[in-house]
Amino acid sequence: MKSAKSKQRINDLRTPARSKQNLVGERDPVQVYCRLRPMQRDSDSPCMKIISPNTVLLTPPSTAISYRNENAKTMKYTFKEVFPPETNQQEVFDKVALPIVEGLIKGKNGLLFTYGVTGSGKTFTMTGEPHNCGILPRCLNIIFKTINDFQAHKYIFKPDKMNMFDIQSEAEAMLERQQELHKFKSGRKNNSNPDLAMSSSDITKIEGINEDNQYAVFVTYVEIYNNSVFDLLEDGPPITRNLPVKIIREDAAHNMYVHGVTEVEIKSAEEAFEAFYLGLKRKRMAHTTLNAESSRSHSVFTIRLVQAPVDEMGEAVIQNKKFLSISQLSLVDLAGSERTNRTKNTGQRLREAGNINKSLMTLRTCLEALRENQISGTNNMVPYRESKITHLFKNFFEGEGQVRMVVCANPRAEDYDETLQVMRFAEMAAEVEVAKPQIIDVAASIGLTSGRRKANRLFTTARDNIIRPEAKDLELDLGLVYSLGPDFPSLELNSSQAAHIIKELMAHLEMRISRRETLKRSKAIKDERLRSALLDLEKDSLEVRSENASLRGQLAAAERRVRALEERLTATENASLTHQRKLAEMTEYTTNLKHELHEKELLLSQNKFDKEKQKKILERKYNHKIAAEHEKAKEINCEKERLRNAIEEKENKLRMIAEALNDRGDDGYNNKITGDMAAQTSNKDFTPGSTPRALPAHLLTPFSSVPQTTQTHRDTPASSRRGVAIANPRHRRSLSADGRGWLEHAPTKIVPMGTVMKPQICNSKVVNKLTSVKDIANSKTSKYCLISQEQDTDGELETKLYKGDVVPTCGGGAQVIFNDVEMLKQFSPTRESSHSNRLSSTTCARHSGKRRDTACSPPQTPSNTSKKQRVDDD
Ligand SMILES: Nc1ncnc2c1ncn2[C@@H]1O[C@H](COP(=O)(O)OP(=O)(O)OP(=O)(O)O)[C@@H](O)[C@H]1O
């Protein structure tokens, strides 16, 4: 309980300005000032008029949108103060910024921002121009002028990167200073803009600074561009476009800050300008049609003043972080609000304008919500997080410091519509209240009297002035002296009143000495008490020590056990590792096998797939072929059918011709023919001299003048249909004409056969070559005999006689119908052959056509030595 209380106390001490108690204390409204800029051109007509030191009148011009909408009327807006165009920078600073800087020195937080339409003079007010500097340089100047004599050495206070500070010893700080010196020697550019500096005589000092504190100033400079935070002081080249985006975080005391931002310790206003100018260079500036040097981003320059009390001797800072007091002044130059269609912005500019307007709108929404909460006592959520700018300054609005706003306005009529919005915003913002920060004197709360530093200086000066050598070693417990009572009276020695003053001083000192004696006595009593307490503690300590020793013994035993367990664990781990290795190997082996298997399976499936594919292709091919075959077969069948019909037709015709012939011809002969026909039709044995019948086509004579046609016997459909001439087989020559004239067709050099196998041909004509149709197609020739001779494979002579009837054809030609073949084969009697079983050396064979059923009849020739044999066609 006690520690919690002390913790609370420490927090209060550390950040006095941020105490949450302030929330319920006094409140200050946001102070809103209005600054009108001078008109740019004489021809410009104004829409604003200052009617009192804190009131302006806004009259809508005829060109304004709201005028056209007929809802415009002249409006009066009241501010804390209105600065007319001729107001100079110093005046603005004194009225607006100086109170905040005074608060800063005293440990209060402050936020000052400029708000207005683009080109209305925000940057002019905040930064100013060369030789006419604005609020920011003036703040820096006055701060350094004020704290100059009380600055801590550099690096005594060091940012801890979490929005707080550490306090370093003098030695540590000195080391860092030396390191920095080395860095600077290796060259550093001076970014300072001397134009922003002021002559030191123009700068006044803030009175009432706590002289028993040491101070240090730190600055950060960030830019919020397109709702992203960039650190303008980040290490790196002065001009870079690739600054990393920073995030906003909440520190341990619930203050918002830019995480990782570069916080530079500044020891003079010049150094501060240097940092500011570096950031300014990096700041994104772009040209719009309205303002040639328009800020496209919100820039936030923050000055943090760290102060810590000096010790009793008035020399060094108390090395206790808890006594630190940090106050902050944020100077914000907001980007100009603008009507995008008037600026004619496109692309990135339009996006920027959108973001600017959005963040300003969020600022407005936050303030409205805050005001609403304050007026109606509600606790509605304020959307600070919707924009970086409001998120960063959340603490200010929730009562962590003074907030002031300078509304800049361009009084020209052209800007009326935007100015109207700005005025409304300003009016609303003025109604928001923030709690007054309270200041707690840290030093007094820990029993330190003020004037320590001054006393130390006085004493040192006095000691240095004493000429006696022992004075150098004079030590005085200044802490005790200067902390014993009220502040020393302001006493100055002058000759006339010296005795009186010394008397007074002696009395004062005597009083202090008596007090000191009292304190000494009380201290002695306290010392005694402390000693006895220490003895008790010592006893306790001894007990603790013995307990500690026994615990150590237990610990040693436990450690031994732990070691043994560790060894076992190591062994188990080793075994486990071996198993794991094996497992890994096996897993790898299995993986390989699986891989192989998979590959083979892939191969198989590929093959299968190929086969399937081939099979399908073949099937398709065969199906095509089969279909084609079917088609062909169909066609053939059709053709057959057609031929059969044609044959039938022709047969019918033939039958009709035959019948006609039969009717007209000789009955005997006809009967003979009919008999022969019948015999032929019924497939009976063939005898030489019988009625000629159709021979196969290959035996037909080539000189038939009539084209060969197929002749099919109705009764014998299987018989050859080819080569049958259109002739009448029953043709009969008149006996007078047919003298059985033979045409002998024999080769010229015929080998004499020595046999009488030739038929008895009495009326014959011998030709060696058939050259003319007339040789056959004449009235005398009715028989034809073709004689051929050739050697067989054994070298024996073979003579063949093909005999046939010459039959006239319908077309007036003639054709030979072969009806008898006689073959004479001679064998040498001396030759030993497989034919030994043969009876004679000459064999005669006779064929009749190509039919198996053809009978072989004895030759019609006279008998001779050669023996005729009936040979089957096969
Ligand atoms: N009170 C003034 N006295 C003299 N000149 C002024 C004043 N206010 C503004 N100006 C001039 O007007 C111009 C535009 O001002 P400034 O750049 O400050 O506008 P801004 O509001 O910051 O614009 P933006 O928002 O676009 O950055 C500057 O050239 C500046 O010198």
CATH superfamily of the domain at 27-183 and 193-440: Kinesin motor domain
How many strand elements? 30
CATH architecture of the domain at 27-183 and 193-440: 3-Layer(aba) Sandwich
- The value of Rg in angstroms is 70 Å
Task: Give the rounded overall mean pLDDT.
Answer: 75
- How many individual helices? 17
The main sheet comes to: 10 strands, mixed
CATH topology of the domain at 27-183 and 193-440: Kinesin
Unreliable spans: 1-24, 285-293, 665-738, 833-844, 847-874
What is the name of the CATH class of the domain at 27-183 and 193-440? Alpha Beta
Ligands, ions, cofactors? adenosine-5'-triphosphate
Task: Kindly estimate the percentage of residues that lie in beta strands according to DSSP.
Answer: 15-25%
Q: What is the 3D shape?
A: elongated
Region (Disordered): 1-20, 702-736, 829-874
Family: Belongs to the TRAFAC class myosin-kinesin ATPase superfamily. Kinesin family.
Subcellular location: Cytoplasm, Cytoskeleton
Domain Kinesin motor: 29-432
Give descriptors for this structure:
single chain; 874 residues; alpha+beta; Kinesin; ten-stranded mixed β-sheet; seven-stranded mixed β-sheet; 17 helices; 30 strands; 40% helix; 18% strand; elongated; disordered N terminus; disordered C terminus; binds adenosine-5'-triphosphate; P-loop_NTPase; Kif23_Arf-bd; microtubule; microtubule binding
Summary?
It is built from 17 helices and 30 strands. The protein is α+β, with helices and mostly antiparallel strands.
